[in-house]
Structure formats: C-alpha cells, structure tokens
Amino acid sequence: MENIEKSKLKALSDIASIDISLEFNDILHKILEITCEGTGAKSGTIMLVDELDNNIRMVASYGLPQNYIERVYEAAKKAGVEISSSPSGTVLETGKYYLVPNTFEEPKNKPFNDLPRELGFSSMIYTPMKKGLKVIGLLNAYWADPRQFTDEEINFVSIAASQASSVVQNARLCGRLKHNVRELKQYKENLEDKIKETHKKLYDSERYLRTIIESSFDGILVVDEEGRFEFGNDSAFNILGWPREELIGQFFIKVFPVDMEKFMLDRWHDIQNGNETPYETNIITKSDEIKYLYVSHSQGVIKGKRKYIVVIKNVTENKKLEKKIKEYNEKLEKSNEELKEADNIKTEFISNITHELMTPLTSIKGFVELLDDEAIGTINEEQKKSLGIIHRNSERLIYLIKELLAASYLEKDKLGLHFGLVSINDILSKCILDIQPLAKEKQISLFKDTIPLPAIWGDEDRLTQVIINLLGNAIKFTLQDGKITVISRDLPEKIKISIRDTGIGIPGDQLSRIFERFYQIDGSSKRKYGGTGIGLSICKNIIEKHYGSIWAESDGNGSTFHILLPKLTSGNGVRNVSPGS
Ligand code: ADP
C-alpha cells in the first residue's frame, strides 16, 4: 500500500515537473500517460470543448485508437442519442467527476458499450477540466476490470485534470498572446512601413523644394524676426558676394554700405508693418564691390516664428546699361541739337546765297536778252551764238538756284501750296509741249498714252514742276534716238501717271534712295549728266503733300516713274485734300 502511495506521489510530482517548453499536445499526452500509469488505468483520453462549435475533440489519448472520439460520436448517432447523454456529457453539464464502476451496468453508457467491449475496459473515471466554473474539457481514465474507485484514485485523476486544465489555459493564453504578438508585430511592421513611406515623402518633397530653391537664379533668403540671416540658397550668397558661413546669423545690415543703412532700416520697418512693395537698393560685397539689387519680400510663420522671405535679383548689369543708355541719349541729344543748329545755319546760308546769286544772274540774263534783241546795238552771228550759250547757261543757273531755294523751303516746310481743281490731262499736255524742244535736241521721241482723267484737288504749279522734273530726268538719262512715254490711268479712287524711258536705267538697290535729298547714283554718270540730286526729293515731297505716292521701277530697258494721286471723293463733294494741308 505504501508503495502504491509512493508511486502515486511520484506520478503527481512527475506531472508537476513536466517540461513546459514541450508542445501543448505533448504535455497533455504526458499528463495522461503519467495519470494512467500512476493509477494503473488501461487507457485514457483528454478531450477539449471546441470554443467555436462546442463539440468535443480528443487532444490526447493513451491506449486508445486515434479515431476513438469519432467512434463515440458514431455510436451516439447510431443509437440516436446526443453525446450529452453520456457520462462525459453529464460531467460537462455538472462540472463534477463521474464514476463508472462497471460500464456494462451503467445506463448512460449503454449506447457506447461496444467500444469498451472491443477495447477491453470496464470501469471509468470522468473528470472535468475547469477554468473557474466553466468546464473546458475532460480527462477520462479507463480500467480493464470493474472496480470501486478509492478517494486517492479520484483525487489523483482530479489533480491530473486540473493540471491538464492549467496547461490548456496557459496554452490558450499563450496562443492568444502569440496571436496578439503576431498582430502587434504586423502592426509594428505596417507602422514602420508607413513611417518609412512618410519619411520618404517628406524627404522627396524636401528635396523637390530644395532643388527648386537651389536652382533658382534669384537669391532666396530667410531673415528672422530680429533681422538675422537664417537661410539662403547658393544664388543668394553669390549675389551678395559673401560666403554663407560669414552671413548666417549676422544682421542683414552687414551687406549694405554705410550710406544705405538709413534707407534699409526704413525698409525694415516698412516690412514689419506689412508693406511688401519691392524696391531697388545697392549692397557692398565682401570685396567692396557695389552691386544693385531688386528686392521683393513676404513674411510668414515658420515653426511658430515670424520669418521674412526675401528674394533678390542682381540688376547691376541693367543698372550699368541704363546708365550707359542715359549717357548715350544725352550725347545723342546734344549732337542732335548741334546738328540741327548746323542744319539751320546751312539752310539759312543756302537761302541767303541763292538770293544773293539770283540778283546778279537775273541782271546778267536781262542784259544778255537786251544784247540778243540788239536793243543796245547790232551783233554779228558769232556774237549771237556766244550770247545764246551765255543765255542758256544763265537760265540753267537760275533753274538750279531755284531748285536749291525750293529745297531749302521744303526742308523748312515753307513751300506754300495753292490747292485748287486741277486737270492732270492739261498738265501732262503742257509739260510735253514744254519739254518737246529738249527731246528733239537729243532726237528722243515723246509718246503719249493718256486717257481723260477726272480733275483732282492739287497745286497746278507744283504738279507741273514734278512732271517737268521727271520728263527732264528721262531726257537727261536717255541716249539719242531713245523713247519716252507718258501714260495716265484712271484707277478706283486714284489716278496713276507713269513716265517711262528707254534710258540707262537705275540699279535695283538705288530705286528708293534716288528720292533722298542730294542723292545721285554714284559713278561716272554723275559727272556725265550733271544735276544736283535734289529734283526727285522735291517731287516726292510735293506728291506726298497731295497724299499721293511716287516710286521708280527699272529693268534692262530703262526706267519708269509712277505717281499715284487720290481722286476727289464722290457723292458728298468733300475733298480728300484740303487747301491747308
Ligand atoms: P539730279 O537729276 O539733279 O541728279 P534727281 O533727284 O532728279 O537729281 O535724281 C537723282 C538721281 O536719280 C539722278 O542723279 C540719277 O542718278 C537718278 N535718276 C533720276 N531719274 C532717272 C532716270 N530717268 N533714269 C536713270 N536715272 C535717273
């Protein structure tokens, strides 16, 4: 008896010292094994109530087949009873152990007795595994023979069941803990990923902003509330001409020359009062170079503190350029004044000299005519010829002087025009008649291709002067046996006059220049044909005063001068050119 007691005690101490680092199932199996061996039971089983479906699942067995519990369920099904009607069901319901001294006499076991018969056991102890008042499973031990159980045996199995219950509870707690730890780990990993992602986003956006700030051509500075440089991009320090480390933390006034300090302190107060108007100022670099800056700024709160964000542009080059342009303009203005003065003197001189020349020349011409008319005495043929030459040349001189005079008047805009209704056909016919002798002299044929034209509003004398000038040039620049054609056309709103010659022509690049005052096509022709280079500029001026236009065309067969003049507007009788214009 004492030996039996000893072995039971040993068994209980074995249960207490089971290695708890073993797997949960292995521990239960070990408890069951020690219980069966310690009590001489033939077999046993530990079953747990599933927390989800409340079914009983066998988690450890001793001396029983693996499918034992399924067979118990099968037997219940076969007998048409619930498992709760078995002693196990009773233990689950009452939370108290249940003794079956002889299964074959136990009514609750009747539907299941095929199994003890087959597996060779006849008596059982069913013990609850409890968590508080709740039954979470069963530890059942089965003996081969029918027997009456002693209190020790009952205690032994109950202690084993309570140990098993602790193991299950610990394992479940552990499982939950593991699950929680896993979840926490997962949560931590997610959190870490999120932190990493946020860090990356922050880093990216910081890099993005930094790239923008650093690649800005303009200087960007942050000045703190006291007026100290706090931050600046590379451009800012390049523009200011100071190394970054010598400016950060320094008062902004450091970069200004002494004479700008008052101005800048005033601006500083303006900025603090919210005046964000940009301004220009100059600074002094570390190497004493003066630079001009365009400064704009705004203020904001960074990390809870007021900051001033200042953008600076280097406008030194513009300033220098502006200064140069100003000086240049002043010089230009001055020389323009001088030129005007010289031009006035020249015009005055031309007008005086032409007047001075005109008087003796008119007298010469008068006396030559007197001599030619033999009013003073008879002259021979030889003398008459010489007088003719003197007469022609003095007439030419008078013509040239008149042209010069007209040019000086034109220049001063003094050429008075006397407008009235003018017949271009009459002017053309008269001019052709006047110029005929000159053409004949050079054996140049004059043709007329004109049509009747409406009268226009203009100055007859001046328009005649234009046509005579063009015809004179045509004869002058056309060789012997050449041909000159005077053409007139009636266009909508305008009339067109063209004078075409078969002369020497005009190079393409000179076609517009010949209308400039004193301009003559260079080369030997100038000396050969003489002239002043004034005629066409007078023509242009006169035509433009009639709101018309004049231009020249030239091909290999000579030149053509075209004139367009506006017609009188029809209907209301309003003139398109007023006498005063
Ligand atoms: P001028 O005839 O007194 O030199 P103009 O102003 O009348 O001055 O003419 C300017 C220049 O235009 C002339 O010197 C000549 O070179 C060129 N020119 C004018 N008319 C003709 C023309 N019909 N044929 C060729 N060249 C011409």
Distance between the termini: 154 Å
Based on secondary structure, the structural category is alpha+beta
Looking at the overall shape, the CATH architecture of the largest domain is 2-Layer Sandwich
CATH H-level homologous superfamily name of the largest domain: GAF domain
Cofactors and ligands present?
adenosine-5'-diphosphate
How many strand elements? 17
Order of adjacent strands in the largest pleated sheet: 2-1-5-4-3
User: How many distinct folded domains?
Assistant: 4
Radius of gyration: 65 Å
- Characterize the overall form: rod-shaped
On the 0-100 scale, what is the average pLDDT? 87
The number of helical runs is: 15
- Unreliably modeled segments: 571-581
In the CATH hierarchy, what is the class of the largest domain? Alpha Beta
Give helix % range: 40-55%
Describe the main β-sheet briefly: 5 strands, antiparallel
Task: Provide a quick synopsis of the model.
Helix content is 49%, strand content 20%. The chain has helices at 2-16, 24-39, 68-79, 87-94, 114-119, 151-215, 234-240, 244-247, 261-272, 316-372, 381-411, 424-441, 460-476, 524-529, 535-545; strands spanning 43-49, 56-62, 98-100, 123-131, 134-143, 219-224, 229-232, 279-284, 290-302, 305-314, 420-422, 445-449, 456-458, 483-491, 494-501, 549-555, 558-566. The chain has a 5-stranded antiparallel β-sheet, sandwiched between helices. The chain has a 5-stranded antiparallel β-sheet with strand order 7-6-10-9-8. A 5-stranded mixed β-sheet has the order 12-14-15-17-16.
